[in-house]
């Protein structure tokens, strides 16, 4: 793939490059998850830090997903090399997927031709050279998922036969996704010729589930369910009831990000042990960073009560019994700004100790407006099946962490 990102070191150009990076990654994750892909061209920004100082690289979403993507040019940038005659930064990058990266022969080089008046006679950009050794191995095998292949509805706890056909493949790995972005392991190292695996359906809920079966030796030899299928589970009694993605700006114009919070509510009839449960955002859920918060051993949420996790210690109310702050070495919850604010949006996850998703909500769509200081809340309040609205719609309150939406105590 060849691209040309928006030029110039100004706010508008930076945000447009950052938004384009979100779209690019989404396209690659969704449409080319197992393919040998190279993306090259004039990226007009760097990958270690932005040319628009002092901001981070607009391509950080790709840099941090090192399990799936690699900038072959990153080392050149970090060593102070330049890719153009005029610009001191490195802006002509080469990105490859993990499937192609394994054939890469380091290092990538900047070629500076001995051409008189190179900039005026040839180009302002230098050629970037990367080498790959694809080898002389026999043609790869093939894998084809035959079930589930779209349209099925599977209930939590039931068993279902994942089936496939294969050729010239010894072992396969099976993964599944709820959203087309994050893939979770089902089983690894299975004998390919059996063509079948009995799957105990996890306790998760989604209408966009797909299964992927891949050659254990060649991740690019794989197949994904032709269509999405559905996972269902009983209505959950512990769920995200409210969260604040973006605090109000303070006197200096900068928000106190400690005030970001997630409120977990127990609508059941008995206490629930939250030990080992985690709160994630989109980035940490992929494994690129640690969980935003992990509930410590012995954390118990009684029936009819809510537990609030704030981003930092200054926001925790004095004497609050069911409240704490994110225990990830000071990083906090780190929820991204809304798309309407020039950010990428984010997803808030509540994940059980076994790694399955208990609840989640996304505000990555441009149609979901984030207003600083105003939380998202279930409607009706305290309902596990409630839709998501901005909290002030319910009782005209900006946010009510640790209280019901009307401001009363639990």
Name given to the CATH architecture of the largest domain: Sandwich
Quickly count the helices: 7
Q: Any idea what the radius of gyration is?
A: 24 Å
Enter the CATH topology name of the largest domain.
Immunoglobulin-like
Largest sheet entry: 6 strands, mixed
- Portion in beta strands: 25-35%
Averaged pLDDT, please?
93
**CATH level 1 class label of the largest domain:** Mainly Beta
Overall helicity: 10-25%
Total DSSP E strands = 27
Say which CATH homologous superfamily of the largest domain is assigned: Lamin Tail domain
Termini separation comes to 54 Å
What structural class do helix, strand and pairing data support? mainly beta
Number of domains: 3
Assign an overall shape.
flat
List keywords for this structure.
410 residues, six-stranded mixed beta sheet, mainly beta, Immunoglobulin-like, 3 domains, 7 helices, Deoxyribonuclease I, Chain A
Task: Report what the structure shows.
It is a single chain. The protein has 410 residues and is mostly beta strands. The protein folds into three domains: 133 residues, Endonuclease/exonuclease/phosphatase (Deoxyribonuclease I, Chain A); 91 residues, Immunoglobulin-like, CATH 2.60.40; 158 residues, Immunoglobulin-like (Sandwich). It has seven helices and 27 strands. The strands form seven sheets. Strands 8, 10, 11, 13, 14 and 15 form a six-stranded mixed beta sheet that branches. The protein has a six-stranded mixed beta sheet with strand order 23-22-17-16-26-27. The radius of gyration is 24 Å and the shape is flat. The mean pLDDT is 93.
